Amino acid sequence: MIEGVLIGAGGAIVVVLLTLLLRRPLLAAFGLKLVGKDSAGPLPAETNGAARESARDAAPDQKPDRLAALADLREREVSDVMVHRTAMRSINADNPTEAIVREIIQSPHTRMPLWRGSLDNIVGVIHAKDLLRALSEVGNDPSQIDLTKIATKPWFVPDTTSLQDQLNAFLRRKAHFAIVVDEYGEVEGLVTLEDIIEEIVGDIADEHDIDVQGVKQEADGSVVVDGSVPIRDLNRALDWNLPDDEAVTIAGLVIHETQSIPEEKQAFTFHGKRFIVMKREKNRITRLRIRGVV
């Protein structure tokens, strides 16, 4: 248990993060410090306005952008940071067990949703550690494994849940992974604890991270992108700042901005980029070329 209280704007939320991460470097990232209870005054009011005012007045080493990000947790929703269903790695429970085991072991992800019939019918979540343990118990024979017994019960959360509420819920349940659904119960994507933490401290890279799938850098400086790539992932991978408040995927952004479903070879310029439709299948934009505007 951490002895002491935080002094500074957004302290209450940072305490939650510290309880999770238990690392002093995170405190330093926010320009905050631990002090003894006897010397601490009352915690400041937990308001977005106070946090943002503190961020404006903060010294350079106090990372004002991160203080503002703390304040934004209450205003942003899980749908803003989730992995969209089109980019979500999942498993069809009706596939042969051997194929499922191989896919999970080869995947860079620790947890994968298990569905039957359609993606909107998620019946469980398989943790790679549980699968490996089960394999060990049956002599590494996948045919002897019942995946439904290994899978844990899926946790569904509304897409309108605020990031602050979801962060608190993750901590209460000691969970890291949730399925995001809309008001009709249809799956929209998934959200992880890391997704929310990264909204505050920036990208958390590790040895298991992989490049964004469906994104290819060309020799001429342009980028070829699958239409299903989430805008948020593209922004992070390429350090862009395309808006994602009206659309989740890059194809959705083009459709929103043009108010149409463009034909192949049509080109448009907005948000400082040139978008060229390379491939369209029926009413879906499946591939785009994007280059900077000179």
UniProtKB/TrEMBL annotation:
Q: Tell me where in or outside the cell this protein is found.
A: Cell membrane
Q: Where is the composition biased (Basic and acidic residues)?
A: 53-64
The superkingdom listed in its UniProt entry is Bacteria
> Which keywords does the record carry?
CBS domain, Cell membrane, Membrane, Repeat
Q: Positions of the region Disordered?
A: 43-64
| One GO term describing the cellular component | plasma membrane
Pfam families attached to this UniProt entry? CBS (PF00571), CorC_HlyC (PF03471)
| Membrane-topology descriptor | Multi-pass membrane protein
| SUPFAM superfamilies according to UniProt | CBS-domain pair, FAD-binding/transporter-associated domain-like
Question: Which family does the entry's similarity section mention?
Answer: Belongs to the UPF0053 family. Hemolysin C subfamily.
This protein is called what? CBS domain-containing protein
